[in-house]
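# step 3/5: fold
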Amino acid sequence: MTDIVGHYVDHEMTSPSQMAQHSAKIKPMAIDLAKSGILLITTCLRVEVYGEESALGNIDLLFSGFPRALVKGARAVAKRLAEISSGAKSQILGEPYVSEQVSNAVALLDPALPISRIARLALGVGRASRVRLHFIAPFNYDRIVYDLIAEQFKGIEEPGRLYMIGAGMLGAT
């Protein structure tokens, strides 16, 4: 077995807008990469791949035109994935949606793969940390949108419903 490694680009390394566009372009590759033993995590703020070094092969296409960082070793990969799962690596500190996105990405992997076992452990640690430390974002996307609407339409009663079309994660409201 080769060492477990990861490569990533996130909102701290490039503009959030560019990151969101790039992530949307890469996301459809998740199933094919999982079949090759590669965990692909795409959120509006990141594109990250993890797996055995030999499985990652040439991943330059996933990061073309973007700087990227390397995470080397099972322990470092588990730490990074736990931090992401807890919401510690999000623009909205402690936001809950990213944990679900990581979980969905891990579910695509063969459970027997070392990266799958490491990612499941990290996901559990990240979620447990959120609960134990009450690390829950005071804002979520729904609340942010309501606040933006309220600010724009001062004096008008806050709507009881919010319909959004084509708003990405905000469409989950």
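# step 4/5: annotate
The radius of gyration is 17 Å.
# step 5/5: archive (pending)
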